[in-house]
């Protein structure tokens, strides 16, 4: 996710006194002074700062549910925080009830090795219909991490945990299912002052391309997660702003590298296959700036599919059916869930 904006100063303890009490404390000279001249209506109107209008979101209606496979991802920004919030916990459970995903990846769970067991036990008690696979960061406490919930009864042939690079940051979980590989990932952020940009472009991204390419030799792939990049201009609410080319997630190098992932590995952005011109369809908003209320965001979360899964003429048992971001489950969060549905043919 992009670097956090500086926290704005807030007023604390603003115990305003009644007007008459304030007047009593003024000096005699101040009390007898003439009031300042009133502003003209035109000047007063010019001094009012209008609230920004929300950015419109193109409707992306979902087709009727069919038999198939639903895979989701949500950057939850801390599992313990989610479990401590009754509202967030209820929205998480509502996602499971209403969307009924077969596979749901959660990234940035921030579980440490020492505290993972307790958090995992509490979460799984809430969703007994699921099993889970976890990648936990061992390089730094309370950082990164990916977990994948899998509906009981869905056969998992093989798993690989944190198999890309040697970061030990809990960045990937791979599940081999009967028809498809699911790769859940939380791609490293280039960081403040782009300190990890070279690592990401020169090491992580090539390793991710190679990993997915090797999987595709056996069966199709669904790679889903927080890729920490806004690929297209329409994925950035303020794309013309001067700071955009110098900000993590929106630099030309990151955006070009994401395009290389699609092209070289023959993947497609499932959302853009279905909604190529949709605008205002973001998955991340700055919470400190309150940007979700006015839909000023970025699209950082993706479901990437092998081209065969999006082609009606290709052989195989699964085809792209829908893909969308579900903002209603995270009205006050920075990321919202992304879901992709594959129908059986």
Automatic annotation (TrEMBL):
The record, for Gene3D superfamilies, names:
Endonuclease/exonuclease/phosphatase (3.60.10.10)
Could you say which residues are annotated as the site Important for catalytic activity?
301
Q: Positions of the site: Interaction with DNA substrate? A: 335
Basic residues composition bias: which ranges?
1-10
Q: Which GO cellular component term is one of those annotated? A: nucleus
Q: Which UniProt keywords apply?
A: DNA damage, DNA repair, Hydrolase, Magnesium, Manganese, Metal-binding
Q: Would you kindly state one Gene Ontology biological process term found in this protein's UniProt entry?
A: base-excision repair
Q: Where does Mg(2+) bind?
A: 75, 108, 226, 228, 334-335
Top-rank taxon of the source lineage equals: Eukaryota
Task: List required co-factors.
Answer: Mn(2+); Mg(2+)
* Site entry (Transition state stabilizer), positions: 228
Q: Where is this region: Disordered?
A: 1-46
One of its Pfam families is Exo_endo_phos
List, alphabetically, the NCBIfam families matched: xth (TIGR00633)
Listed name of the protein: Endonuclease/exonuclease/phosphatase domain-containing protein
Species of the source = Prymnesium parvum (Toxic golden alga)
